Amino acid sequence: MKQQTVAAPIELRGVGLHTGTDACLRILPAPADAGLTFVVGAVRVPATAEYVVDTSRATVLGRDGVSVSTTEHLLSALFALGVDNADLELAGCEVPVLDGSARPFVEAIRAVGLRAQAAERRTIAIDRPLALQNGDRVVAFLPAPALRVRFLADFPAPIGTQYYDGVVDPQSYEREIAGARTFGYLHEVEALRQRGLALGGSLENALVFAPDGPLQPLRWPNEVVRHKVLDLLGDLALLGAWPLCDVIAIKSGHELHALATRALRARALEAAVPGVA
Q: Chain centroid to CA 222: how far?
C-alpha cells in the first residue's frame, strides 16, 4: 500500500475533555515520510512513542516545554483510516474531545478524502512474540499477517466484563470502533475535577455510568470495550508504522500501551525496519 495524507485541510473546534478550554485543531497535508506531527506554535512534536510524557488519564505528548493532551482519539482515527502523514496544528494544549469518540474525526477525514503518495506505507511485521505485563494487565503482540485486536476489559458494576475481537481495517474501524465514546463513573467526576481533570466533560462528550447503569443510551452493548480498542489503536499510532500482528490486551490502559509501543518500536529500529524513524 502507498502512504496517504489528507487531500485538503480540515478544521475542528471544540472543548478539551480534561482542561475544559477551547481548542482548535487543523489537520493539514504533509509530504511522504513526514509522519504525524503535532504543531503548537513553533514547536513540532512527532506523534511517536519517544515523546509520550504522561499517561495518567490520557496519552500526552511533549517536547521543549510544550505538551499536547488527549491525543488518542484523533490518532486512532488517522491511524485506522490510513493517514500516514499530516501536520496537526493545535491552538491550545488539548485536542478537542468533540462527542467523546473518534467518529467526528473520521467524518471530517472522509469529507475531504485521502491523497495517495509515492512512497510505500511503513509497516512492522512481528517475527516473534512480545508481551508486557503489570499485575493482571497485559499487552501482547503475536505474529500475524494482518492487524487483529482481541481486548478483554473488566470494570466494576454496572459495566462488568466485556470482550472485543476483530481485524482492523478502515471499513471495520468506521463501522465497529470509531463511534465508541470515552466513559467514566458518575462518582469519579468530582474526584477527577478536584485533580484538575475532566473539566470539559459532559453528557454530550462522555458516556457516564451511574450505579444502576448508563445515563445515556448505549451505541453498542459493549461500547466500553470498543472504546478501549479505539484508545489502543490511538496509542499504536505512536509506532509510526502499521503493525502486522495479533494484539491481545487484557485490562490494559494508556500506560501499558505506551510501554508496549515503545518496546515494539525500539525492536523495529534495532532491526532497521525501512521507514521507521
A: 18
Backbone angles phi and psi of 273, in degrees to 5: -65, 125
Q: Give me the chain's average pLDDT, please.
A: 94
227 a catalytic residue:
no
Residue 102 pLDDT grade (very low, low, confident, very high; cuts 50, 70, 90): very high
Coil/strand/helix, residue 23:
strand
- DSSP letter (8 states) at residue 89: E
Domain housing 93: 2-122
Output phi, psi for 223, to 5 deg.
-60, -35
- CATH code, 87: 3.30.230.20
* Whether pTM exceeds 0.70: yes
Catalytic residue among 18, 73, 227, 254: 254
What does residue 226 show for φ and ψ, rounded to 5 degrees? -65, -35
What per-residue confidence (pLDDT) applies to 116? 98
The secondary structure of residue 96, as a DSSP letter, is B
Is 256 a domain residue? no
DSSP state of 11: E
Structurally, the chain folds into a number of domains equal to: 1
